[in-house]
Amino acid sequence: MRILVVDDDPFIRKLLVRQLKTLGYQQVLACERAQAAVEHLERQPDGTDLILCDLQMPGMDGIEFIRHLVRLGYPGALVLVSGEDERILQSAERLARGHRLRVAGALYKPVSSEQLQRLLQALPGGDAPRTGEARSYGAEELANGIRAGQLVNHYQPKVDFASGQVSGVETLVRWQHPEDGLVYPDRFVTLAEEHGLIDALMLDVLRNALADARQWRARGIELQVAVNVSMDNLVGLDFPDLVEQEALAAGAPLTSLVLEVTESHLMKNRQAALDILTRLRLKRIGLSIDDFGTGHSSLVQLRDIPFNELKIDRSFVHGAWRDKSLDGILGASLEMARRLGMRTVAEGIEDRTDWDHLRGAGCDVAQGWFIAKAMPAEHLPAWLEGWEARRSELA
Ligand code: C2E
Ligand code: CA
Ligand code: CA
Q1: Which carries the bigger pLDDT value, residue 303 or residue 248?
Q2: CATH topology for 3-131?
Q3: Which of 130-139, 207-216, 383-392 is predicted with the least confidence, judged by mean pLDDT?
Q4: Cα separation of 290 and 312, whole Å?
Q5: In CATH, which superfamily holds the domain spanning 137-394?
Q6: 291 lines ligand 1 (CB under 6 A)
Q7: Is the CB of 350 under 6 A from ligand 1?
């Protein structure tokens, strides 16, 4: 494991490095400044498996550093180390998780060797050397992959809380890479956005989803199909017409289609996005505000865009039953959606407790590993049969 320690305090820095080496981790690099760490990561994007980072630092602080990790798409694990009070450390941890960084935990100073060891051992693949799995891809390679039809859709069921009925599926794209196997979207969607490939990706995903829905329909399975769209897809004003044509060509009613919109960065052209989203709704295509509560998915979007579904980010869902602040936010979001006449979906229902809690809170639709992980299209009919049996238990 290649570890990077970022802390301005020379004593703590040396202590951490010594502790890590004593625990058998030899590849440890220490930076006094966060800026230097960023530069290191820019030079070697795949050269680090774990970062231990202080929050309070002169120049660039830990929060700013996290921002850079998000920008760089840092795939490794992160441990926040701080002498600050618990709420600040928790907020920082949450912030990082909300950004989908792999947060392995938080440590209070002074850090004991035992704490450090426990945390490192809990890391998935703790001691095992990384395989080629973590390598990053080039735009050219992705473009070729799309052209060669290597993108495949998996589908994750969405279930009605009250009836237990499966109401639809969310399409989650994967890249069936000829050498690396199944590659997850976190490792190529941003790349597609940054290199003008996101429209080609979206079109491919949409076509495949419509074709799969057609197969299901032929077997008597009617499902609403949700497709993720990036804000970068909402640039060309003919986007709604394009989606409509594709749906009609596949014989899918427009009401059976939902577009989940995530805003990972600020909209470049707000007017165009508003125009497009409003026309999609006029065509009765469903619009869902994804990851609500994180990033830029906020009240401003709710005010301006006619979303009819609100997906509460999984960071507010899983474990909300034992966290008062999460639960407060969750309850308020559900109430707000209800007042706006929107359907609510909770993502990240990971266990029975989450299910019971969200159901009790009045959420409409459940999605998460407790129900099912995303699966290939051809597995869905068998899964649906199995679900019927489980469904009665949950009623
Ligand atoms: P998302 O839209 O928030 O999708 C949900 C992600 O959470 C999926 O990861 C899903 O597998 C995972 N997930 C589902 N249930 C649970 C659960 O109970 N617990 C936990 N911890 N995770 C759960 P996945 O498939 O890796 O997708 C990651 C993100 O990639 C998606 O986040 C979405 O933003 C993006 N994405 C996926 N497909 C597309 C696409 O076709 N186009 C665009 N633009 N983005 C896509
Ligand atoms: Ca989504
Ligand atoms: Ca989401």
Answers
A1: 248
A2: Rossmann fold (3.40.50)
A3: 130-139
A4: 7
A5: EAL domain (3.20.20.450)
A6: yes
A7: yes
